[in-house]
């Protein structure tokens, strides 16, 4: 009996059943595809093919090929965190570096409340006034992001709307007839209409409703779990953009990530 067991053990060893090296080889080939996070599905061609993700990845690639990533930002003009985000991240890290690859939509309404057509703002009547002004600026200025950046930066430094807006028009060389349209809109009923539209945009985001501002909506989808990208937008854009020519700003992302790692041994 012992001889039979011994022979059986030798047979199993020869075929690799008790071979630790063989077990290590199988460790990463017997992957449970059902346990792979969706964000990984299209990250590697071999993984995509092995786990049967090809159809959904092809649909995403075809629909997104050479299309700008749409980034919608819900904000309010007098919110300190919104001002910081617009001036320090959105303008400098996204607009200036990824302008050709990202479509930025700004919605200046934020945590305001709309009751029977009357808007009440979180930071008072002056914020309502500036929100309406920025709604009009976004409508009439052809390239509005630099103006919103400039105005929010002025407000952040303590200027009033009446002090900051003229400086921004002058700095950006915006034509007088454009600034006149913005001012006329902000002082009239059309500005109220623009704010009602921004209220609807804010209230109708899907599937998650905003809990704070700034709040980001990616390609028309609002997710609470996606808000952590607010501090790492360049990496998100580099990962999501699908095109023949990747953004040049993405070239240094990998090196920056490696430099930020606490302690690693690089593979030669």
From TrEMBL:
GO terms for molecular function: oxidoreductase activity, acting on a sulfur group of donors, disulfide as acceptor. Residues 1-16 form the signal peptide. One of its GO terms (cellular component) is extracellular region. This is Gamma-interferon-inducible lysosomal thiol reductase. PANTHER family: GAMMA-INTERFERON INDUCIBLE LYSOSOMAL THIOL REDUCTASE GILT, GAMMA-INTERFERON-INDUCIBLE LYSOSOMAL THIOL REDUCTASE. It is found in: Secreted. The keyword Glycoprotein applies. It comes from Acrobeloides nanus. The keyword Iron does not apply. Belongs to the GILT family. Keywords: Glycoprotein, Secreted, Signal. InterPro entries: Interferon-induced_GILT. Coiled coil: none annotated. It holds the Pfam family GILT.
């Amino acid at each position: 009996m012992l001889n039979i067991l011994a022979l059986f053990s030798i047979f199993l060893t020869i075929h690799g059943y008790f071979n630790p090296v063989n077990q290590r080889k199988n460790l990463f080939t017997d992957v449970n595809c059902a346990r792979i996070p969706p964000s990984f599905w299209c990250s590697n061609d071999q993984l995509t093919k092995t786990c049967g993700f090809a159809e959904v990845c092809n649909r995403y690639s075809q629909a997104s090929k050479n299309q700008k990533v749409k980034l919608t930002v819900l904000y309010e003009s007098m919110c300190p965190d919104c001002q910081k985000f617009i001036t320090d991240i959105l303008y400098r890290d996204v607009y200036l570096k990824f302008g050709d690859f990202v479509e930025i939509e700004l919605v200046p309404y934020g945590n305001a409340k709309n009751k029977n057509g009357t808007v009440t703002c979180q930071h008072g009547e002056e914020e309502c006034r500036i929100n309406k002004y920025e709604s009009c600026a976004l409508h009439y200025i052809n390239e509005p992001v630099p103006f919103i950046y400039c105005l929010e930066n002025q407000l952040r430094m303590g200027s009033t709307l009446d002090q900051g807006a003229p400086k921004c028009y002058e700095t950006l060389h915006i034509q007088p007839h454009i600034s006149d349209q913005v001012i006329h809109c902000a002082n009239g009923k059309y500005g109220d209409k623009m704010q009602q539209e921004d209220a609807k945009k804010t209230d109708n985001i899907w599937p998650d409703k905003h809990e704070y501002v700034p709040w980001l909506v990616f390609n028309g989808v609002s997710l609470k779990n996606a808000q952590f990208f607010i501090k790492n937008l360049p990496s998100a854009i580099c990962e999501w953009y699908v095109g023949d020519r990747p953004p040049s700003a993405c070239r240094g992302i990998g090196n920056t990530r490696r430099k930020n790692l606490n302690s690693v041994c690089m593979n030669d």
